Amino acid sequence: MRTFGLMKGLPVISEKSGEHLGAVLDLVIEGDKVLGVLVKKGTFLKQAQFLAIGSIISIGPDGIIIPTSGCLERNGKDKEGFTLSHHSPLAGKMVLSEEGDSLGLLNDVYFLEEVGTIVGYELSDGFFSDLQDGKKVIKPGGPPAIGKDAIIVNPDTT
């Protein structure tokens, strides 16, 4: 299990050539799955490319290994789905229970890197509350309903 916060900025390296292909920029999410990551390539144009979660060989503390540069798809920002902080951002959106209770603001996601299944949402109640009580993590009981202004989840209470 991994959070996106630990992946952001990691270098993406080709296993075949050992070439540095870019750095992790954002996560692409659809429902309760992580489809892949956006990889920032270059320093001037900062072209984002999409890397499917299934193309990743391994994710370590110092980098992500993929088979070849051919795994990166051009125009990553045009990929369908939501991201945490770029186009269609989810971070900072209000998270509500199905009963209408406010759970907090989405800060990060926990997911299984092998298959991309989201297993938890890290929520914030604000800076001072986070300092005092820490951030909370909820397990989803199913796929969320993601809207323009809020994310509605059914927290798993087991």
Write the layout of secondary structure elements.
Elements: E1 2-3, H1 4-7, E2 11-14, E3 20-30, E4 33-41, E5 47-52, E6 58-59, E7 64-66, E8 72-73, E9 82-83, E10 94-97, E11 102-111, E12 118-124, H2 127-133, E13 136-138, E14 145-146, E15 150-153
Parallel strand pairs: 2-7, 10-15
Antiparallel strand pairs: 1-11, 2-3, 3-4, 3-9, 4-5, 5-8, 6-7, 10-11, 11-12, 12-13, 14-15
Domain PRC-barrel: 8-68, 88-156
InterPro entries: PRC-brl_dom, PRC_barrel-like_sf
Protein name: Photosystem reaction center subunit H
Describe this structure in words.
By secondary structure, this protein is mainly beta. It has two domains: 2-83, PRC-barrel domain (SH3 type barrels, Roll), CATH 2.30.30; 94-153, PRC-barrel domain (SH3 type barrels). The chain is 7% helix and 45% strand. It contains two helices and 15 strands. The protein has helices spanning 4-7, 127-133, and strands spanning 2-3, 11-14, 20-30, 33-41, 47-52, 58-59, 64-66, 72-73, 82-83, 94-97, 102-111, 118-124, 136-138, 145-146, 150-153. The strands form two sheets. Strands 2, 3, 4, 5, 6, 7, 8 and 9 form an eight-stranded mixed sheet that branches. Strands 1, 10, 11, 12, 13, 14 and 15 form a seven-stranded mixed sheet that branches. A hairpin with a 5-residue loop joins strand 4 and strand 5 (47-52). The longest helix is centred in the C-terminal third of the chain and has 7 residues, at 127-133. The protein is elongated, with a radius of gyration of 16 Å. The model has no long low-confidence stretch (mean pLDDT 87). It comes from Neobacillus piezotolerans. It holds the Pfam family PRC. Residues 8-68, 88-156 form the PRC-barrel domain. This is Photosystem reaction center subunit H. InterPro entries: PRC-brl_dom (IPR027275), PRC_barrel-like_sf (IPR011033).
